[in-house]
Design a protein that fits this description.
Number of strands: 9
Strand order of the largest sheet: 1-2-3-4-5-6-7-9
Structural class: alpha/beta
Helix content: 40-55%
Order of helices and strands: EHEHEHEHHEHEHEHHEHEH
Distance between the termini: 16 Å
Shape: globular
Length: about 350
Amino acid sequence: MTRFSVLDLSPIAAGSTAAESLRNTLEYAQHAERLGFERFWLAEHHNMRGIASAATAVVIGHVAGGTEKIRVGSGGIMLPNHAPLVIAEQFGTLASLYPGRIDLGLGRAPGTDQTTLRALRRDALSAERFPQDVQELQRYFADSEPNAAIRAVPGAGLDVPIWLLGSSTFSAQLAAMLGLPFAFAAHFAPGQLHNALTIYRSHFKPSAQLATPYCVVAVNVFAAGSDEEAQRQFTSHQQAFTNLVRGTPGQIPLPIENIDDYWSAPERVHAESMLHYSAVGSADTVTEKLQKFITQTGVDELMVTGLFADHTARLESLALTAEIRNRLNAAATLGAAGV
């Protein structure tokens, strides 16, 4: 069976506000919980007018406080932007408030541009310290000595699973070396997916946290009652990525009827290469695409995401995705039984 989870960026639709986006995120998480999704992650991005999850730990607390069972976490916290001790304290606090429900996914990229990085008071070399910072963070969560000079309070001795996130092979290698679960961002960086999974699985060393490799892959999923309606909703995502390529990111655009009226041929090639792993269509179409993806990758867990401007369509897409998950897992169970 393949587990299904959700990655949310709290998208701010054109003409909307961050406050409305954060209310929608909580409703979306509650919807995911009712539908039986495994976890609900939020991502750190800065200086992005279309994303409301910059203060990621705060939004995680908002979501965890409004749900009951679903795991809530970061996909991810961009560790180069933060002191490891501060992250240990933040997630130690979250784990104290919501025990057994908090995940800490860590990324190596800053999640922003160089100008904003300077505004965050971080330097361009911060990412080079990522392996050391991850291990420092692990030490803060360990049961420290009573007389330790520095302790994370809360944090020390708490169960906060650490995940490594990546869009290349670097974090795959580090996750394998440290024996941590690994999540790959195929929803915007598909190129190194298979290499990263191969490296992670082949070099994995068991740890106290994880005995065997565990892979999560994020993919874009836009499911609707018809292929045409799903494609129309997907144009919000396509426009957003085109704007990013143009250097003009903004709020998430409303859907349009024909994306070819919006982008140029070179922009289409660029955007489509970034969005290669996108399952867009009716339930039957998305089922076929996700089945193929699961077979090709052997992924343990799929994390679905997508920049919807239409919140109602996003809720409907997730409900259809839950039906697709059940269909795929039922077929896998029958196949394993030789039926």
